Amino acid sequence: MSEIILDVEHLLQYFPTKNGVVRAVDDITFSMERRDILGLVGESGSGKTTTAQCIMGMYQPTGGNILFKGKEIGSSFRKRSKTLKGDLRIVFQDPGSSLNPKRTIKQILSLPLVVHGIGNARERLSRLRELLEMVELPPDEYLYKYPQSIGGGEKQMVAIARALATNPSFVILDEPTSALDVSVQGKIINLLLRLREKFNLSYLFITHDLSLMRNVTTRIAIMYLGKLCEIAPTAEFFAEPLHPYTKMLLSSIPVVSDEEETLKPEKIASTGEIPSPVNVPSGCSFHSRCAQRIGICSQVDPEMVEMEEGHFVRCHLFGNSRELYSKTREQIR
Amino acid sequence: MDHLLAVRELYVGFHVFEGDLKVLNGVCLDVSEGERVGLVGETGCGKTTTVKSILRVLPVPPAKITGGKILYHGRDVLAMKRRQMQALRRHEMSAIFQDPLQSLNPVFKIGTQLRDIVKDSALGGGSRLSRREVNARCVEALRETGLPDPERIMTNYPVQLSGGMRQRVCIAEALMTDARLMLADEPTTNLDVTIQDQILRKLDELVEEKNASVLMITHSMGVVRDLTQRVYVMYAGSIVEVGETRTLLAEPRHPYTQGLMRSVPKLTAEGISNGIPGRIPSYLDPPSGCRFHPRCEHAMEVCKSESPPLYQVGEDHFVACYLYRS
Amino acid sequence: MRLEQQRSDWMATLALRRRRLSRGWYKFSRNSLSVIGLVVLGLIVLAAILAPYITPYPKHAKAYTNFRDAGKSPSLEHFFGTDRVGRDIFSRVIFGYRFSLMIGIVVLSLGVAPGVILGLIAGYHQGTWIESVIMRITDVFLAVPPLVLALAITAMLTPNLTNQMMAIALVWWPWYSRLVFALASSLRSKYFVREAELTGTSKVHIMFKEILPNCLAPVMTKMTLDMGIVILLGATLSFIGLGIQPPKPGLGTMVAEGAKRLPGEWWGTIFPALAIVVVILAFNLVGDGLRDVFSVEEV
Fold first, then answer.
1. Is B18 in a helix, a strand, or coil?
2. May I ask the CATH class of domain C98-294?
3. Would you call the peptide bond into B62 cis, given omega within 30 degrees of 0 as the criterion?
4. Residue C169: pLDDT band by 50, 70, 90 thresholds?
5. Is C192–A97 a contact, with Cβ atoms under 8 angstroms apart?
6. What was the ipTM of the complex prediction?
7. Could you give the number of structural domains in chain B?
8. According to a count of CB atoms within 10 Å of the terminal CB, is the N or C end of chain C lower?
9. What is the longest distance spanned by two Cα atoms in chain C?
10. Domain span including residue A82
């Protein structure tokens, strides 16, 4: 049993706006062990990005706890220690804007080293070369380039090198390959997997590409309108999806072969638009689009139950709610 | 055979600081009536340039069409005068682009924009329709794309709608004119998976109904498989493979297509391949002969000297590769 | 070994700078008008610097009278003719350019830096009281028309060159503050800024090393275009009598003096006025070219 590196407990992140309170993250609980690659999937408004941002400290959580290596870190990054900032890093989604176009690769990569006081100028230069070699970019060629003269894949590799510059133990990857071509994606993903082996890293991997997740993550958590719907080890997530939203999502994936078609769950045609996080439907937030909803779904929000080891689902069709449901029906009769 | 759209040996270049970029390298493709054709390739392969050439919306300096023809119903689009081209764009061709926020004017209501299109088009006499009739057609078009409450949407501004709804408005705009050819450039790339699914499904339905032809550009093989009957694979400005979609995806022949298919992550959990070694070539000094040869493990001497022609490898399957010379 | 690395590091950085400059020139030179503007500007600057050596009558730029030569129309001896006290207008115009350019440079030096810095701080702290304070002060200054404010300030103080320059500088900084505020506040949400924040970089570094370089392009373009307007403003103040005082050869002052002799001795006003037009036009053309240089080409 590996140590728990990240523990998120009843995390809440609400944003007051003039149209109402946006419940970006609405009571989620999950944990990660060292060397886990947890995939966080969800569509617009699901709260996956906000969750990552809370963990990074971009916001002060409205409620709940975030424990990293056993210590509470749920606070704005300004209040966090430098050690923590170096230990918990993020690679952003859009390589185009995650590198300052007016700075050279050398300057970009030097920044975290300077801020964290790693070595003197000469040592930093050799560390920079080391970092670039680690992501397989020849240092002599790349140190003096500006971001606009290198390709998207290479930019992302620089972003990864930057994240690893401070020897972190946990890296959040926010859609690291979404903006890249598929032929470049593989290189980056394999690089990330190798680095994980080498440095014992843990990843929180956010993406909407479920086929990619199938091949990369160890566990998957799916979110909808700020709440977790299902968490399961990867293979089981795809083989035995329980939550209707999971099934809807999985059945919508465009695949490239007949073989894969058979692996998809039975087609649940997706209907309706995703509600705005300001106007979350009552009861279970998914009930308005759910093909399998029952009476109780519009009134009571289900609880998360563990159906099999490590496989959690939040749906009235499963677990204790089912008994509650049958009891309610009995009473009505 | 008289195709609806036939692009023949199209060569397009761009002039920049560093020199002349030779982007399109003799692109040939055709779309028949009622056919759904896909054009896949990665970033920078020239697919958008091809579409813009067809619509003739390329910024002509710095771009330059240095050779080839684009025939629509047998007439060369590149030789047309401005007015003829405008008529073509208004009545015969329609386009949907990737970012609906860029295609819709943010300061006008949806209704205003749709009405403008109806009044302009050949739809039942265009400007001779009464305001009520024009409105009714717009509402009808919106309803057909699956938008709930189309009357209210007519009064909304684009920013008030979600991404999926905006893209549906663009689809309505494209289909409203009864255009024969629809050019769709990555129409669902920015949308959520479940919404993408809905929209593609609806698009499929509507195109089928009107018997329109579609040239769908995308980098997603999965989308191409679901939506098209034939597909062209493009690399660095050349067509490398073309054929019936399912066959091509199941048995890719060109080394590039094979590399691409290997790189696509699959639900069968085969792991992630390392992609295709090398980078896409610079258009300033593109590789001689077959532009893929520097990255190809099967490269032969002849590959470096001349660009390969299309060889037939199946009933409806052609590959531009010397490996299939016989 | 390490020394080698450092030297090659330095050389590579130099090569990079050279490449960027040549690309910049390419973009600039595609517009022939901008090149013409640059040439004209270069000539004017050169002439202004070398004024005492190249003008035919350098002494005429100071107090000098020679009523025998007064009021002569343009000729080979006096290209622009002479004014009512006999001074050569051509020489005075060249010396006048010195004042104009100086006004432009000093005003922009005084006004741009504070404006940019304030805008930067306000933009980075958008949403806080810092932003409110800075931008409201900016708004107050912007609410008053520049000429009126400059007039008021110069009128309160003794009218001379120094006060005139200070007055215009005081009026000018808010425009830069607002420009940089808009740029900085939109850059703030970019990923590379967030990343720097999350790493623990100091605010000062983020503002000046990450955000500011991205604001420089519009600022520099604006500065070039502003030179023309500042020169005009200076000339206007001098024209009204609140700026450069006679006998100093300010272009605006000369226009005012010559205006009394219109339409008869037209050369007294027209040539200084044309000189003002030419220098402003040159700056505008160069500014246009700069805008092209900084534009990002999309292919």
1. coil
2. mainly alpha
3. yes
4. confident
5. yes
6. 0.81
7. 1
8. N
9. 78
10. 4-97+168-332
